[in-house]
Amino acid sequence: MDSMVATLGGGTILLLAGGAFGLLSRRGFSLRWLLVAVALAVVNDAMLTNGYGLIPDLLPQSAWNWQGKILALAATLIIASLPAFGWRRSGLTLVQAAGSLKSAIPVVLVYMAFFAGLAVAFPSSPATAETIAFQLTMPGLEEEAFYRGTLLFALDRAFLGRWRFLGVDWGWGALLSCVMFGLAHAFGFSEGQFSFDPLTMALTAVPSFIGVWLVLRTRSVLLPAVLHNFGNAITLMF
């Protein structure tokens, strides 16, 4: 129940913030696609929580949510295969936009340096083999495919207005996808109370911004997914 309330809270924030941005740019705003984005967020959270507990947990001994991540990734891939989305248009492709790697590599190095610095500044306890395996795979695969893939695609269709910044065309949808990524990590609901961790929100803002930039530049979630898992795993090495 707590997970469902948190999901509805996050969806409400997306709807209200998106509606506000829509009022600022009515000519390029599609309420239908904003509602699609909200529905995607609900479906993603439902899968991550095993249907809010309705789906039996087949891996009860696992320390990490393998089943939820796999279900969420499967749902994202199914949605991306729909004609309205498309894997390539949603960024779920290994193909990089022509000439994009030359400008992407310096950004990749900044991303890696950022997380290496965090790992040194905040050393972690020794990690188990399962923890290392999970962090090297599931977060980047599932979260990037969703937040920088199908969700970004839907939000970009909801807000067609663009402005040029750092060599790519940004829209309100790109910014909202960053906000939703931060809220997924910093926003929660437990024992009847909402919680919000501003430090977590701040620490996810930088990688989220870089991840969106890479997708807008390369038209693929490949580099963000690899870097996401690198960022998670490098913190386990110190």
Write the layout of secondary structure elements.
Elements: H1 2-24, H2 31-48, H3 66-80, H4 101-121, H5 129-135, H6 138-158, E1 163-165, E2 168-170, H7 172-186, E3 187-190, E4 193-196, H8 198-218, H9 222-234
Antiparallel strand pairs: 1-2, 3-4
Helix pairs in contact: 1-2, 1-7, 2-3, 2-6, 3-6, 4-8, 4-9, 6-7, 6-9, 7-8, 8-9
Describe the 3D structure:
There is one protein chain. The chain has 238 residues and is mainly α. It has helices at 2-24, 31-48, 66-80, 101-121, 129-135, 138-158, 172-186, 198-218, 222-234, and strands spanning 163-165, 168-170, 187-190, 193-196. Helix 1 packs antiparallel against helix 2, helix 6 runs antiparallel to helix 7 (172-186) and helix 6 (138-158) packs across helix 9. A hairpin with a 2-residue loop joins strand 3 and strand 4 (193-196).
Summarize the structure.
The chain has 238 residues and is mainly alpha-helical. Helix content is 65%, strand content 6%.
The best one-word shape is globular
Order of SSEs: HHHHHHEEHEEHH
β-strand percent reads 5-15%
Rg on CA atoms, Å: 18 Å
Helix content: 55-70%
Which class do the helix and strand fractions yield? mainly alpha
The average pLDDT score comes to 89
Cα-to-Cα separation, first versus last residue: 36 Å
What strand order characterises the main sheet?
A: 1-2
Kindly state the number of beta strands: 4
The major β-sheet equals: 2 strands, antiparallel
How many helices? The count is 9
Key attributes of the depicted protein:
238 residues, two-stranded antiparallel ribbon, two-stranded antiparallel sheet
